[in-house]
Structure formats: C-alpha cells, structure tokens
Amino acid sequence: MGLLTFKMGGIHPPESKLSAKSAIEEVVLPKQAVVPLSQHLGVPAKVQVKRGELVKVGQLLAKGEAFISADIHSPVSGKVAKIEPRVDSTGFRKESVVIDVDGDEWDESIDTSTDIVKEIKLDQKEIVERIHRMGVVGMGGATFPSHVKYMVPDGKTVEYLIINGVECEPYLTSDHQLMLEKGEELIIGITIMMKALKVDKTIIGIENNKPDAIENLKNIAKNYQGITIEALKVQYPQGGEKQLIDALLGREVPSGKLPLEVGCVVNNVGTAYAIYEAVQKNKPLIERIVTVTGKTVGKPSNYKVRIGTPITELLEKANCDMEGTGKVINGGPMMGKALVLLNVPVTKGTSGVLLLEKAEAKRMPVLNCIRCSKCTDVCPMGLEPHLLSIIARQAENERCEEEQIMDCIECGSCVYTCPSGRPLLDNIRLGKSNVGFMIRNRSRK
Amino acid sequence: MGLLTVSGSPHIHGGLSVKKLMWGVVIAMMPAMLASFYYFGMGAIKVTLVAVVSAMLFEYLITKFILKKEPQLHDGSAAITGLLLAFNVPSNLPIWMIVVGALVAIGIAKMSFGGLGKNPFNPALVGRVFLLISFPVQMTSWPVVDKVFPLGLDAITGPTPLGIVKEGLDNGEPMSDLMSQIPSYTQMFIGESGGSLGEVSALLLLLGGIFMLLRKIITWHIPVSFLGSVIIFSGILWLIDPNAYVNPMFHLITGGMMMGVFFMATDMVTSPMTPKGQLIFGTGVGIITIIIRVWGAFPEGVSFAILIMNAVVPHLNSLFKPKRFGKEASNG
Fold first, then answer.
1. What is the C-alpha separation between A79 and A55, in angstroms, rounded?
2. 20 to 30 Å CA-CA from A238: which of A147, B43, B103, B125?
3. Contact B11/A253, CB-based, under 8 Å?
C-alpha cells in the first residue's frame, strides 16, 4: 500500500519506542524550580517579579515584549529565591527565576478541573491574544512563539492548518501518548486554531506506526468539521515542516520561505493541546509531557512535568542506570542536544530525555570521504552534504550560500548514513552560522 | 558515574561502514574469482595472491613510512584494488610484473593523491593499463581455457574471442568464418572464453553485480546506462552492416565488459555522485568502449573508456546537481 510520504531522501532508523503505550504519569513537584527566561526562539522575556516575592502557579514571571518572544509563567507556587543566570539544556547560562516551592496554589483565573470545555467563546482576535499571553510556543522542539503563526500578514491567505502528529524521532512517544489520552482536547484545540486562522481544512499527519492514535483521532474528528487524519509512511524526517507539507499536499515550500507561502500553517499536536488549555482553561504553558527513555532507563515513561523541574528528578523516578549511561540527550537521538549538566530544568521545548549506553555514546572513527554520495541520496532537501561540509570547513561562505546551505534542516540523515563517520552536520552548522552572519551584515549595509 | 559524552546531533548511526561496503564488493567478486581458479588453475591463484598481498603491502608501507599515518588496511580498499588488478591480467603473467602493477596502482594512482577516496582514477585500471602499455606481449598472451583445473603454470596460450574477431575483421575475413572460430555465445556467457582472470564468466560477474545492487553498494544508473549505450551504439553499427560489425550480444559477454560495468565503472570514488551525472558517465563509457573496440588499435576498450570518463567526473559533479527541494516550487 502506498502511504503518503515526502519525495526526496529520508532514512528509517530503528524506531525504538520503548516508552510506547505507557500512560502519562505525573511527577511530584520539585523542591526548587528553575525557570529560564528564554525557553523559546526569539528575544528573552523580561522579568516581572522580584526576589522574595510570593508567586502562584500560572502567575506571570516574565513578559515577552518583542514580537517574536513569549511570556513565561510560574509553574509552581512559592517564593522567588533568586534571579540569576543558570545553565540550561543548551549548555549556556541563561537568566532564570529560581523559585523555592511551597505547596501548590494556583492562580484563581485558571480552570483546574478536568472537564472538557467544547464551546469556544472567544472571537478570532481574542484567541490570538490569549495564545500570546499564555506563553504558548511550538511544542515539537523548535519552540517558535505560536501567536506569530496566527497573525497572518496582509495579502497572505491560509488554506490549510497542518497538525504534526508524526513523531518521527526514534524513542520519543510523548506526542503519541498525548494523542491517545487527550484526543478530544487536542481536536478542540485544533478547532480553536482553525477559528484563529479562518481556515476550514485541517490535516493531521501521523506516522503509520501509531495506528491506535490514528484510530482514536479519526473517531473523535468525525464529530468536528473539516478535520482529516492521514497515515504517513514511517520515514525520517517525516515530521520536518517542509517534508510534512510535501507529503500531505505535494506542495514544496520555496527555498528560504515559510509554509505560509504555500498556504499552510504547521503546528505540533502538543501545541494544539497547549492552545486548548490556554483558550478554554485560561491555563498558561507551565507543564508538558516528557518522554524519559533509553536502554539504560529502568522504566521508560511518559511524564507530565512542570517546567523548571530538574531533569535529574526525572532520571531518578524512571530508575535509570547512570553507571551504564554514556550520554544524556535533551530530545530525540536525531536532533536532540547532548546535555552538559544533568540538573538543568525541563523547559517548554523538552520533548524527551534520552539516555544512551556507553557504547552508543561515542562516534565512530572518521575516515576519508569515499564519495559514495549516500549523504546526497538521503538528504530530504536535495542538498549535497559532502560538498557543504568541505566548503563550510574552508569558510567559503559565498559558495556555501550558492549551494543553499541555509536550506539544511539539520535532520542528521547524512551523518546517520555516512560510512566514513564524517562529522558532516557539525561542519554544516558552522557554515550556516557563518553564512547567516554574512547575510545579516549584508542587509545592514 | 563516569563523564558523559557531549557531541552534536545526530546521536545514532545506521551502522554502515567503509569496511562493510568494501567487503561487500569482495563477496560480490568471489564467484567470478572461484571460476577463474577453476578454469585457469594454479596460475590464477598465484596471480590473485600476489596482487592482493602486494597491494596491501604497498599501501601499508606507504601509509606508515611516507605519509606517516596509521595504516587502514582493514577498510578493505587495498584488497579490492589487488583483487581487481588480478581480475585484469592473464593468469600466466610473471610475478614481478604483477608486483609492479600493484605498485603503480597503489603507489601512483591511489596513495599519491592522498589515499582512500582521494584518487581521481580507478587504481586497478591504472595498474592494468600501465602493464598493458609496458608489457604488451605478456599482457596479451592468454592461456586457453581447457575446462580442467590446470596445475601447470605454463599453459597453452591463444587470443581472446575479442582478439580473434578484431584481427579477423581487420584482415577482411568474413564474419561467419570468425564466428566459427570462437566459442558459442552460451559458452562465453557461462565462462569458457580465454582472457584475463576476471573476464572468464560474464554470468558470475552479473550475479556479483546483482548482489551489489540488492545490497545497495551500487545503484543501477551506471550499469544500465553503460550497457544500454553499448547495446544501442553497437546495435546501430550492426544493423548498418552485419558483416562488418559484430552484434551487440557479442560485445556484452566478451572481454572486460561485465567486469567494467559492475566492478570498475561503479567504483564510488571515481564515478559521479549524482544520478544524472552517473547516467552521462555510464553512457560515455559505453560509447568510448565501442569506439575503441571497433576502430581502435586494441581489441579491448573498457579500461581506457573508464579511465577517460574518470577524468570527466569532477565536471559531471559540478554540472549535474541533485534537484533541490523548493527550488522550482510546484504549488499544488
């Protein structure tokens, strides 16, 4: 049977979904929560509280004042102990609000009941405003502030809302579990998004290795207008924004452009759920589902975690064998970041914590390129990673730009495939940052 | 708990390695190698051993003492060069010539460019062509296949079917006479034609090629375009005058054709990196092969054709780029 998929390249790594079908569990509150002011793409939020101040769950900690920024709310109740730079999952120090947790007192404006609210009372403008003020960002990992996507510029029309339930990263299961347990809320979230965008067509793309999630959402979507669910081939990076649009609609987002260019807005299922909670429950983005998984994890699980909870607490709860662990990754094995410190907090973009065994943690020795061109074959963007890697290394920035280095989505398929174990993506990232710098300088002149 | 590793994504690897690719090629060559042992006996075993051992030895010595790096013999590429060189010479070639061929292949064609992956020309072919030009007599006196495992090292020699036909046509002998002097097509296809070690059985080379295609060591582009252009080009000539030109089938199953198609032209290092480039490359090799075979001084043209097209590869790589995503966007 021909399932839908994207047309260029791609790989199929072992799916390794160890934590599949383990129900979402709540994690006890941490003693201290560390909340970075920059958990999203764009400008860090500006702090609104003072040291010693008492805060409630959901209270605004920092305001995203720039257009591309997001509000940060307190995930716990207690006293602001410090406001200082702390190392986060990126390995860099970021200004953070440290809160000593005391009880669990929520802001009164938040509806904490589990009742499902179907009726959408807000109008289009109010929805976008609410998404903005509740600090909703893309939950797939890129953490792009969501309200921006719902403020469609004049002259552009949106035809389709695309919901990403692909979860093509091996190991991760948080989106899968969300689609199983919170299907109704998720679909309501989608209808809210459709109202905000004034579109009448939504497609939810889900990889075919999650038949139960496809079934569940299909059943629920029957009662709603304009929402279809498409099963997709299990092929990485099916969940890449441009690949997903290509797979579902056969439209290619032009080089350097946004999905809007082909009439699409793409959001993750996690974002749809966050929007449901923001709009229907007035609940800011203060918690998320995190998969804790890997071969050295005693109990691979899907946890509902407050933002700011140290990752070490999750590792303890999941009964991890840290002696046998060689690498801890924030995110999935293909695009996640290796952690430099373990006691960094869970943030809005933490979709999973993956532990690799000592033997898996090390890269293979690097050999000369044998020009097999397997990297080119698997590149979903039609680029030539072997070439980009060399010219990026030599800082031939103009040539890098010509060869469209900026189109690289950093999916890692090239490195995964390379028989010589070459650090293609390391070099390409370097080149992208050089070319980005060059382009910014040019527009400044 | 020990220190954790920190490195950029991706954090998992598909497990493919140069070693796996290279040993895959060696496995694909096994059937044809065993057939050469069967038909040419001790001579073939001697040639193969000397070629492989000296290729590996030269690579080891050059890497260690001239380039002063850690030798990487386990990647299997030196062994393949040795094996391919053996496939390309007659089984009665003097040992010292094989050693010279291996030195030229590894020392000049491969290591002087920087070793694995850096050589523009196929090392084994450079070695073969060097030997052919330097020692034309020894390189073209082919032991005759007599179907038993010959233990003696001094076999009776005779020309290859390609040589018989080439010389005959040049002397104006009629095609039908020439055809009666060579084995039947079936015999030649299965493996009863004289020639270099690896030329003996088109069938087993084809099997090795199919194995490599299935294992995704090679793609179809070069073999298909190579064979296709040979069939079309020689077919046109044959249709014009069947008495002056041999039919395409003859070209396909004789000489180094199958070896060139599956093991020489498809060498990753020296062939283009995009499908379009590979199609042009294969077509070029096919056409040049037939030009040399029909009008050239040598009866065989596969090696020269591949080397000539090797030189064009960098151009093909920059002329034929893969189609970029979102470059010519089709909106709906």
1. 6
2. A147
3. no
Q: What per-residue confidence (pLDDT) applies to B200?
A: 79
Q: What is the CATH number of the domain that holds A269?
A: 3.40.50.11540
Query: Which of A245, A280, A315 delimits the end of a domain?
Result: A280
Residues A139 and A251 in one domain: yes
| Interface probe, candidates B3, B12, B67, chain A, greatest A C-beta count within 10 A | B12
Together in a domain, A264 and A317: no
Q: Specify whether A251 is located in the same domain as A150.
A: yes
pLDDT tens digits, one per residue of A48-88: 999 999 999 999 999 999 999 999 999 999 999 999 999 99
A49 lies in which domain range?
A: 28-101
Residues in chain B: 332
This complex has an ipTM of 0.90
Which two tokens mark A178? Answer: 């969300």
Q: Are residues A210 and A84 in the same domain?
A: no
Cα-only R_g, chain A: 21
Q: Which residues pair with A357 in a beta bridge?
A: A325
Nearest residue of A to residue B278, measured between CA atoms: A373
The count of structural domains within chain A is: 4
Q: Give residue for tokens 């793609």.
A: B219
Please give the structure tokens belonging to residue B173: 């002998």
Among A313, A309, A289, which Cα is nearest to A301's? Answer: A289
- Whether the full predicted model's pTM is greater than 0.95, yes or no, is no
Radius of gyration of chain B measured on its C-alpha atoms: 21
DSSP three-state, residue A161? strand
Residues in a beta bridge with A229: A204
Which residues between 292 and 331 in chain A have a beta carbon less than 8 angstroms from any beta carbon of chain B? Answer: 322-323, 325-329, 331
The H or E element spanning position A83 is strand A78-87
Chain B residue closest to A369 (CA)?
A: B117
Predicted pLDDT of residue B52: 96
Instruction: Please report the number of interchain residue pairs, chain A to chain B, with beta-carbon separation below 8 angstroms.
Output: 174
A333–B11 CB contact, under 8 Å? yes
Taking contacts as CB-CB distances below 8 angstroms, the residues of chain B near A374 are: 16
Query: Within this chain, do residues A181 and A321 fall inside the same structural domain, yes or no?
Result: no
Same domain? A133 vs A266: yes
Query: Rounded CA gap, A403 and A28, in Å?
Result: 50
Task: With CB atoms and an 8 Å threshold, state whether A251 touches B268.
Answer: no
**Low-confidence spans in chain A with pLDDT less than 70:** 1
**Per-residue pLDDT tens digits of chain B, which is 332 residues long:** 678 999 999 999 999 999 999 999 999 999 999 988 888 888 899 999 999 999 999 999 999 999 898 888 888 899 999 999 999 999 889 999 999 999 999 999 999 999 999 999 999 999 999 999 999 888 887 777 665 566 555 556 777 888 888 888 888 888 888 888 887 888 778 776 677 888 878 899 999 999 999 999 999 999 999 999 999 999 999 999 988 888 898 898 888 899 999 999 999 999 999 999 999 999 999 999 999 999 988 888 899 999 999 999 999 999 999 999 988 644 43
Burial class (CB in 10 A: 0-12, 13-18, 19+), A372: buried
Based on the domain organization, do A434 and A293 belong to the same domain? no
8 A C-beta contact, residue A308 and residue A30: yes
Using a CB-CB cut-off of 8 Å, the residues of chain B touching A364 are 13, 17
Does the distance separating the beta carbons of B9 and A410 come in below 8 Å? yes
Kindly state whether residue A412 falls inside one of the protein's structural domains.
yes
Shared-domain flag, residues A129 and A275: yes
